[in-house]
Amino acid sequence: MRSISLSSFLRGVSVLDTSLRKGRLKLLSNRRFIVSSNELLRNGGMIFNCGCLMWKSVRSGTLSNNSAASSLHFWLCTQINQVTRSFAVIYQLKQSPDLVGSKFLCLSFSALWIMAAKWEFEDQLSSETARNIFLRALRFHPDSAKLYQEYFRMELMSVEKQKNEKEILRRANLDTAKDLYSGEILNCGLARVVYKAAVQNIKGAKFHLSLLSIAKHFKFTKDLQRKILADLQRLYAEDPHTWDFLARQELSDELPAPEAPKSKQKKAEILAQKEEQCSRVYERALASLQTESMWELYVSFCLERYKRKTNSEELKQQRQDRLLSTFQAAHDAGLLPQARYYDWISLLFTLEKGDLAVQLLEAATDRFPGSVDMWKKRLELLITLKAENLEKVFEKALALVKTQESLPLWELMVDWSEMERSEKATESLYQKLVLNPNTTKTMKVKYLQWTYRIQGYKRARKVFSSLQENRPFSEDFFKMMIDIEKDQEKSKMGNLREYYERALREFGAAKPDIWLSYIKEELSHAEGKPENCGPIHWRAIKVLQGPAVEEFVNKYALLQSGHL
Predict the structure, then answer these.
(1) Into how many domains does the chain fold?
(2) How many angstroms separate the Cα of 204 from the Cα of each of 28, 240, 389?
(3) How confident is the model at residue 81 (pLDDT cuts 50, 70, 90)?
(4) What is the pLDDT of residue 120?
(5) Residue range of the domain that includes 23
(6) Cα 542 to the chain's mean position, in Å?
(7) Is residue 386 part of a domain?
(8) 395 shares its domain with 513
(9) CA distances from 409 to 210, 403, 459 (A)
(10) CA neighbor of 331 nearest in space, from 289, 285, 299, 284
(11) How far apart are CA 467 and CA 462, in angstroms?
(12) Which of 155-169, 422-436, 438-452, 500-514 has the lowest mean pLDDT?
């Protein structure tokens, strides 16, 4: 059998998928004929088998698209009840020495086990077979959290199904209802076994909470939920996510129907009380768990509640006060995450407290002296307020930030200089920055753009000429000069050719779009020479490397047909 590429195999899968939906298969001879579903599906198996042969001959790391193909093959097998055959093929792949240890095996194969179990449970109505599939899957993937979660969910769905069946039989007054269903199973016995195995193999409060979240979807799991919650508090009492859940639980507790409030004001009062109870739980957690992650969860909760809409001004004010005090407490403890400072600053601006924002940003840059984003935020605020100490703060920022990360600060500074300082001072700053290796690429483009806007076309050409031999460059530098030339009332094709040729010297081996733009310019410009297109095309084919050649050929074909 001749070898096929992965892309060819996937194209075959795509054609098959389209044919399946239409109920016909298109042959290479372009003849169409109607075939039975089984014949189509067998053809799908043939395509998959071709892919399997290819996969076995390659090394791991080239399997990025195989998950979709495996999923499609599994679906094909379900259509003709050949799931066993599907897993035989998958098992062969798994045993291949070339694929052992592949990331693909860890991810996609566990997903295929879940698909198989779901198909058995939902389509074949076989809980026992689905259970066996999950047990086999866990032998191969004992550390798969997703497998345990879906197995746990399936067992609860099985209980729900049996309870519904028993209720139907009871209503029909059939005596067999008691004998058919095990009380242990109806009491979530199997689900408890799965839960116990899951928490023994997969550690962490987040996973524990995911099982609790699944159980909450079933009304009959109150006892199981209490068991999971008790284990959570026992095993992960020092985990911030445990406390976060316990705090938020205060919001979800519902009042009995007779006590449910009717007026909007009463509802707001009760909600305010619940949020206060949540806050107390967080405060209790922080008394013994002073960590950044714990403060992060508390601040996130306060921020979420603050953003919720309410018609109660009292509740709105309570949320605002709580959020501000939480921000301040976390900051005073030195444990407020950097990202939350931006939320705090944004809130202060919303409340028109600019002076407090300035003080806060000063404290934040003292705490995170190497953060470019924090210094940028502080400088932006000082620019907005037209602060007199701006240049001193900027110099301090440059002294503390890593040189190779300072570009955003310099961009901010030149933008400010363009608006507030003299033309001479701005040009002097640009001339300094184009010589700095950490800023030269970006600043050459900005310098050229500013020169054209302020000093005109002739000066821009001189700046371009003075910089064009001073490497390194960015592609945008040449594009900017080309755009400036084309912006003239009577642009000169000779100048454009010069700029294109200069750009091609730097980027011609990897950028097919420059070649295409050059060709289009020769075709569309009043002074262009269409006869130059052939030589340019020939040069492009010779100079471009790797995938860029194919990209150029495809786009050139579109250009010739008028679609580009």
Answers:
(1) 3
(2) 55, 11, 49
(3) low
(4) 87
(5) 1-141
(6) 39
(7) yes
(8) no
(9) 43, 10, 27
(10) 299
(11) 9
(12) 155-169
pTM: 0.75
Q: Which region, left, alpha or beta, applies to residue 108 given φ > 0 means left and ψ of -120 to 50 means alpha?
A: alpha
What whole-number distance in Å separates Cα of residue 319 and Cα of residue 304?
10
Is 371:390 a contact under the CB 8 Å cutoff?
A: no
In a domain, 328, yes or no: no
Q: Please name the amino acid found at residue 219.
A: K
Q: What is the largest CA-CA distance in the chain?
A: 100
One-letter amino acid at 495 equals N
Q: What is the pLDDT of residues 172-229, one digit of tens each?
A: 776 665 666 677 788 888 999 999 999 999 999 999 999 999 999 999 999 999 999 9
Show which of 385, 401, 417 is a domain's final residue.
Answer: 401
CA distance 72 to 17: 8
Output the domain CATH number for residue 356.
1.25.40.10
Residue 540 maps to a domain: yes
Mean pLDDT of 21-28: 42
What angle, 0 to 180 degrees and rounded to 10, lies between the N-to-C axes of helices 37-56 and 66-79?
150
Distance, CA of 33 to CA of 43 (rounded, Å): 14
Residues 133, 6 within the same domain: yes
Kindly report the CA angle at 308 between 302 and 310, in degrees rounded to 5?
Answer: 120
Question: Do residues 390 and 510 share a domain?
Answer: no
What pLDDT is attached to residue 175? Answer: 63
Is 427 within the bounds of a domain? no
Burial class (CB in 10 A: 0-12, 13-18, 19+), 215: buried
Confidence category of residue 26, pLDDT binned at 50, 70, 90: very low
Among candidate residues 141, 168, 187, the one where a domain is terminated:
141
Specify whether 386 is located in the same domain as 511.
no
* Residue whose C-alpha is closest to residue 414's, from 426, 397, 431, 398: 426
Give the 3-state secondary structure of residue 453: helix
Return the closest-CA partner of residue 33 out of 44, 19, 47: 19
Cβ neighbours for 142, distance < 8 A, ≥ 6 positions apart:
201
